[in-house]
Amino acid sequence: MTGRDANRGQCAQPCRWKYHLVEESRPGQFMEIGETEEGSYILNANDMCTAPFIDLICQAGVDSLKIEGRAKTAYYVASVTSAYRKALDAFLQDPTAEEYTCPDDVFEELDRTSHRPYSPGFYFGRQQAKQETKNGGYLRHWEFIGVVEGWQDGVAQCSQRGKFCLGDTIEVLTPLGERITLTPEWIKNELGEEVESTPHATMKYTIPCETALPAYSLLRRRVPSEK
What we know:
Elements: E1 20-21, E2 31-32, E3 47-48, H1 54-59, H2 74-92, H3 104-110, E4 118-119, E5 142-152, E6 155-160, E7 170-173, E8 179-182, E9 187-189, E10 194-195, E11 204-208, E12 218-222
Parallel strand pairs: 3-4
Antiparallel strand pairs: 1-2, 5-6, 5-12, 6-11, 7-8, 7-12, 9-10, 9-11
């Protein structure tokens, strides 16, 4: 349809587009598919999530897991990899246990990146391979706002990836998957001047943080509509 090869990382996502039905002898007459005024996204599958049954995958003899991320952001890859690392570690603590319970913070982390509603895909039969037929949007509860480039004496040096304002509560995701919540008492620009927000793309700024933050920690905040 687009001349782009999905298997080579060039997917145009036609399965997420909105479609109408055309009858062969009535060209140009576009009929709605669905039951609402918005139509229906007939090919819009939910995102697959295997974290709740990662134990079954490992017990089946799988030695390596690949997380889809070739067309995703660095933030997505970091967040989802962190979540699945926790899920795997929880299973590996006792691989012979009769029952595996996926930790709550795995689901909390998976909710912190842009995604469609989750489902187990076809792992347990067609009936659980769900689709979102009423809309084609993503769930975006959190937004990526910055990268920590360094930390010294209670001050984090950061690079902007999204605007946040003084008084906002933000969360730090460290490279080891730790989550740290803070509300900076001040923001200073590259000249050391106190500012009310970080409006400029990739601008350098500093914020106070008593906890030592490793370089490459990621900053995010809950989107305002979800507060």
